[in-house]
Amino acid sequence: MRLRVDTMGKKVYFKGSEGNRLCGVLCTAGTVSKPPIAILCHGLDSSKESNTNAELSAALSRSGIAVFRFDFFAHGESEGGQKYRTVSRFVDDVTCAISYLREIWYKRIGIVGASFGGIAAVMAASRVGGLSFLALKPPGMSRASRMMPNYKKDFENKTWFAAAKKIRIPAPVVHGADDEVVEVAFGVKLAECIKSSKLEKIEGAYHRYTREDDFKKMVKLISTFAIENSM
């Protein structure tokens, strides 16, 4: 029987920790009423409609995994003012997304976090039990964002490294060897902090994987891992 794939998804809204409205898209896959599901967390100043999210949604849906991609606070279609963005707000958004999916009876939940969204994903995964996996695409802060008052303290304290030490679920770190935004050293350190992690370095790749071959390698690494650890 041919697998029914939904890559467009249904737009939904859920509440953040302070009552603000967050927007997400739920893409179901297959004939099982509640398949495994992956939450996709975009980077700073990006959105749920990023190229990475689009390609991962298609790859995971074809393999029978549902996808929930959402806009963080003050991003895309979610409410909030940019000056009120903080790391803790983004972490709360991830935990609220997990709670929302559990309320609608999704049981097997994994997270994919990209760049700044990877920081939020790491910290949320350190607080929430029962997750299937955590996949990270160069998680960290750019040189510009790490100096902003909203984020500087978290960067200086390396709060996500401390959180990473509490994670026990499978959690690879995929990092471009020529990343010009988040230094590879941060990816190496994070992989060392997570006992169940492995660093997957893509030689020659930049932060945004602008070369087609690099982009395809990144999507394949993350989607293959998510599929293997969801079923």
- Annotated CATH architecture: 3-Layer(aba) Sandwich
What gross morphology would you assign?
Answer: globular
CATH topology: Rossmann fold
Broad CATH class: Alpha Beta
Q: Main β-sheet, in a few words?
A: 6 strands, mixed
Query: Any idea what the CATH superfamily is called?
Result: Alpha/Beta hydrolase fold, catalytic domain
In round numbers, the mean pLDDT is 94
Share in helix: 25-40%
Overall structural class, as computed from helix and strand content, comes to alpha/beta
Count of distinct structural domains: 1
Instruction: Note the run of SSEs as H and E.
Output: EEEHEHEHEHHEHEH
Q: How many extended strands?
A: 8
Ranges with pLDDT <50 over ≥5 residues? 1-5
Count the DSSP helices: 7
Whole-angstrom Rg: 16 Å
Q: Estimate what percentage of residues fall within beta strands.
A: 15-25%
Distance between the amino and carboxyl termini: 19 Å
Spatial strand order of the main sheet: 1-2-4-3-5-6
Describe the fold and architecture.
The protein has 7 helices and 8 strands; from the N terminus they run βββαβαβαβααβαβα. 35% of the residues lie in helices and 18% in strands. Strand 1 and strand 2 form a beta hairpin. It has a single domain, classed as Alpha/Beta hydrolase fold, catalytic domain (Rossmann fold, 3-Layer(aba) Sandwich). The N terminus is likely disordered. It has a 6-stranded mixed sheet with strand order 1-2-4-3-5-6, sandwiched between helices. A two-stranded parallel ribbon has the order 7-8. The chain starts with 9 loop residues before the first strand and ends with a helix. The protein has 231 residues and is an alpha/beta fold.
